[in-house]
Amino acid sequence: MRCEAFFEVLKYLYFTRPYNTMKLGLFRIENLLSRMGNPHSGVKYFHVTGSNGKGSVTTFLEYLTYYHGHSVTGFYSPHLSTILERFHYNTRYISQDEFVEAALEVKKHAEEMDKLGEEFAPSFFEYMTAMYFYITKKSRAEYGSVEVGLGGRFDSTNVIIPEVSVICTVSLEHTNVLGNTVEQIAFEKAGIIKEQKPVVVGAMPDSALEVIKQVAREKNSMVYEYGKDFYVEPVQFSFNANVYNYYGSTTIKNIKVKLNGKHQLYNVGLALKTFELVEKIDEDGVKRAFEEAFIPGRFEMVNDIVLDGSHNPQAAEKFAENLDLYFPEKRKAAVFGIVDDKDKEGVLKVIGPKFDTLIITRPPSKRAEKVAETYEIAKKYCKNVLFERDYIKAVELLKTTEAEVKFVTGSFYLVGYVRDYLLNGKIGEELMIGGA
Length: 436
Fold this sequence. Notes:
Layout: H1 4-16, H2 27-35, E1 44-49, H3 54-66, E2 72-75, E3 87-89, E4 92-93, H4 96-114, H5 124-139, E5 143-147, E6 164-167, H6 175-178, H7 182-189, E7 199-201, H8 206-218, E8 223-225, E9 231-236, E10 242-247, E11 251-257, H9 264-276, H10 283-292, E12 300-302, E13 305-307, H11 313-326, E14 332-337, H12 344-351, E15 357-360, H13 371-378, E16 385-387, H14 391-400, E17 405-410, H15 412-424, H16 429-434
Parallel strand pairs: 1-5, 1-6, 2-5, 6-7, 7-8, 13-17, 14-15, 14-17, 15-16
Antiparallel strand pairs: 2-3, 3-4, 9-10, 10-11, 12-13
């Protein structure tokens, strides 16, 4: 049933606490949680950061916990099609009613803080974080699997004392906030390491790893490194049915993983090492968890169209790698749209030659007006480029092509809206409220 209160709360959040407005520091979230009775206390957490991979590792940990017989919440950002994707309980999204209840509880305390001035007014993400902790406490979950929003040290999730901290990767990202070198960014991410709590780290530059190790030494925290203390080997790459072997304190072979991409082997290893530091591994529980673990819009097929983001050159490289891995020698066509402040040339240079046909469109974002510019760049890298400004018409045009495999890629705005359209035959009211 349509929940009127849900849409009213969404309007309040999107317009009163603007999405994408960033506020660093922990004093607001600490104050807010204190007013709420510290709902984040008394729960065992996994805390996950990284330039790439943190969403997958957080997901894997949630599913591992659930399939080992524990109640667990998950906290994720950003969302793709519905804000409910940010809040999980036992691997399922919370309901609209549960969302409204949490939002209204936080609102009482947030608006008292608003009266103290702009500096004290909780941001959108701080509000989301407080809602997550309320949901976790209300559900009496034993565990929480928490993805960092940005960086680590000053992220609003960094109020927890986790059982294990995880740093997946370190690369240059958000340099205007986190620093201009991988060493500076590694220091910010290492901010989630807590006193005498272990940290699990993925493959990364040596200089970044050394920064993390130094922080861990200062915190008396054990470091477990991918490739040294544990590793994963691929057995088979097959779309939605990849198979890996894990070697850590335990050995588990022939783990089927639904999530696609070679990079997932690192994420599988990070999640399993993290989990086995806290719980006794059950092989059946592990295999069920990885077969079920799912993230929308990540090389996902919906109604015979594969959806994935290629919003920067790094993501484009992984996307192109997956095209060769899963669909070699197949005729391929894609709808592609990207916002104007991204590296269009860098992305299209990588993915353009992979397609027989590219249909250029406008993602549903105020940041995507220069679609003609995207079209001209695309023509340099793909032989057959079409233009359709309306993304719904572009998807319908894609369906008529003779390609054996069809894709929608580029901006996650585009992927999210198209996913909603493919599943429901229209764009839902929620996306219309928060969208372009």
